[in-house]
Amino acid sequence: MLLAEGGDRTWEATRPGPAEGPSAAAFWDRMMLTAPARRAPSPRAAPAGLGPALRLLEAAWHGGRAGMPAAPSAGALHPYECLVVTGTGTGAAVFAADPVRRTCALLTEGPETGRALDESGLAVPEGGALLLVVARPWLSIRKYGDRGYLYTQLDAAHFAVHLLGLAADADERAALRTRLDTGPLAALLGLDRHCRFIHSVLTVGAGRGGRGPDAGHGTGTGPDTGRDGWSQTRGGAAFAPVSWLEQACWGLIGPFRERGRPADSEVVPEPLVSRASELLGGRPFASGESRTGLAARRRSAKTFTKGAVSRHDLGVVLSAMRAELRTDLPGGDPVRATLVARDVTGLGVGSIGLTGAGAGTGTGAAGPGLAPTAVTDEELVEICMGQDHLRHAAGFVLLHARRQELLRDGPSGIDRVLFRAGALGHLLYLGAAEAELSITAIGGFDSARWRAVADLAADEEVLYVLVIGTSAPDSDVSGVPGVSGAMKLDRLHVAYAQNER
Ligand SMILES: Cc1cc2nc3c(=O)[nH]c(=O)nc-3n(C[C@H](O)[C@H](O)[C@H](O)COP(=O)(O)O)c2cc1C
């Protein structure tokens, strides 16, 4: 395999300056494109560890819509990308990997890179690699405004847990870290200048053959251009040039992005929530289907049809939240889950705490352990920001945290709480695939109104909502009255899920 030598590191933000004045020439010239200088890559052998990492990335796209990874993302914008770190004789090397174009470009290598990794607390496993999920918030913020940052965190968490699930199917030592201070490596790569940050780091071992259907991504051989179709990048920038719009957006986020996060990054395999309700009594993923297989089948529902879900099937979905994840998140339950049941056989209509101490405070009047909730279909659509396609959903899982806990550790604490919410959301998606129920995450909702509907304490912030129910086949529904054919309204150019019309 050939790899590109260095990326084009030039970076330019073509912000219109006052000196330009309102001349036609300045106006026209701003609309012109300049092709970056192309540097021919020099042939080189691929280091060990790169092949398994690239194949894992390819597997992560399997089952997704064309050109997208098989993880959900608000508006299908996927505001993240991947870097691969491998060990070399002289230290370490970092590559930008693009699984859509199937290209790979060397960004940096050598002793300096090795030092930056050491200072970031990162160690490349023997014969393996590190896969870095790098967030690019602009991709979401340009559509969703400030809320796009929240979606960036949730989306990246979905993707990172998706990768972890796939990696773990092949190698049970795979681990995901979110608490490292990766500042030194980010500085070496100039990520701040490129309006990006390292979200999480997945350790991919050399693999041992694996158990899942796609376990071949862990076999440890280098990529082979002929067989795998990956190739070197022919010139061009490793990171796309940053526009003045993106830079302005980053300028608003930057002050909230702290450097030097805590480095106590011990990996402990444990569930992210404790069980407080019998509804989570089942063994997670009891069918035995691999997470790779479930991820390839999961989809976001385009609309919901009237119809109850059974308590058993709902239990299969909810129990997925108890799956063990090998992460460095500390114990405790800062994110809790509450179910708002509307049409579940064997369960009344009402809300029930599912996880964490003090959950399940229902009075019993509405069903076993359920607190009565009164929400009409109309109100439901309203508090989901006018998303009419959710009207007939059978149940809503609210992921929430106490405001005090959410804000306690500053902005990076918010990131970590959102990571848990996104990770739990992802497990629910896999649980729904296993139970063959329809599910969609929603980011478009009114947090305070949901808090009232679910009878949560006054200081609870609803972070994320997962909607569960039944759907007609895609070909029969559009989500828009009078329009046939499947359409996911969240993918429209306007921020439909935020009431933008
Ligand atoms: C953080 C997040 C927020 C989302 N918000 C909504 C929403 O408000 N309404 C909706 O219908 N779908 C929502 N979705 C689902 C996306 O539209 C869906 O993931 C995307 O269109 C890709 O489709 P797929 O999940 O079937 O691959 C959300 C997904 C995520 C991860």
Please give a structural write-up.
There is one protein chain. This protein has two domains: 47-264, NADH Oxidase (3-Layer(aba) Sandwich); 269-498, NADH Oxidase. The model is unreliable at 1-11, 208-227 and 360-365 (pLDDT under 50). The chain has helices spanning 24-30, 50-61, 111-119, 138-144, 147-170, 183-189, 225-228, 244-253, 291-297, 311-319, 377-383, 403-407, 410-435, 447-453; strands at 80-88, 91-98, 103-110, 129-135, 175-177, 197-204, 231-232, 268-270, 309-310, 325-327, 336-341, 344-345, 350-353, 395-402, 438-442, 460-469. The protein is globular. The protein has a seven-stranded mixed β-sheet with strand order 5-6-4-1-2-3-7, with helices on both faces. A five-stranded antiparallel β-sheet has the order 13-11-14-16-15, sandwiched between helices. The N and C termini lie far apart (48 Å). The chain contains 14 helices and 16 strands. Helix 5 crosses helix 13. The chain has 501 residues and is α+β, with helices and mostly antiparallel strands. A hairpin with a 2-residue loop joins strand 1 (80-88) and strand 2 (91-98). 28% of the residues lie in helices and 18% in strands.
